[in-house]
Amino acid sequence: MIEIGLCGYGAVHQTAFSIRRPKGSPDYVLLLIKTESYYDKHGQVYDLPANTAILYNKDTYVHYGSKKPYYCNDWIHFTLSGEDLDFLLSLDIPFHTPIILPTLNQLSEFVRLIVLNKHSDRPHRIQIMDATMKALLYSVASQKCTAADTVMAHKNYEILNKLRMDINNSPNKEWAIKTMAKTVHMSPSYMQHMYKELFGITCIQECINARIKCACSYLRTTDMSIHMVALLCGYNNETHFMRQFKKSEQMTPSEYRNRYRLW
Fold first, then answer.
1. Distances from the Cα of 176 to the Cαs of 65, 77, 192, in angstroms?
2. Nearest Cα to 159, choosing from 254, 51, 13?
3. Are 200 and 237 in contact (CB under 8 A)?
4. Average pLDDT over residues 217-221
5. How many Å apart are CA 259 and CA 239, to the nearest integer?
């Protein structure tokens, strides 16, 4: 069982500050640094970009901070032993070494859940924190392996990938180009260009694919009318839905249902 000690989510410092522990901490410490900062390794100070993780081993020198008047991070102190120590070591996350994170949001969400459970009295909160901490460490290790990926390292990847996830999670929404561009704070033309460059598909085609995928699920698993399926997948015009569905699946929605339904 991984035991969670002190922890914080979205901790903000409005002035330059420094954390220095000459003898380190008696437990392990994971930092998710969201703003520019620095850290000290063997007496050498290095500047760090935003979206960086550092895992500190226990009882070892710690020195990090910010030179600028704004700093934000997530942080977790934790202890482990036995099988859990073997688990951590098997992930091959280097201690005291910055890891540039292609996508920080997912990791930060794990920390938020850990902090919420740490300060609650919910049943099974200890088990939830243990499972979430393991998921967090797995994710750090995964991003360490993919950090060199040029797509994920692109400056616009995180915000456009969030848009992509939103499209696939809510295909029923009205995903107009202007609305999407406003969401990511880009011009419509630049947003479309960058989306295609990063994901190999236009954002409009992404919306269509997400809607058709959602429709397929409804057709396989429910007996709702074709009209209702169209509405739930973001189509106000049933004919338009049927035309796009047939173009994508090479059959009508009714034909698809008859062939693949699970009921």
1. 42, 44, 12
2. 51
3. no
4. 91
5. 21
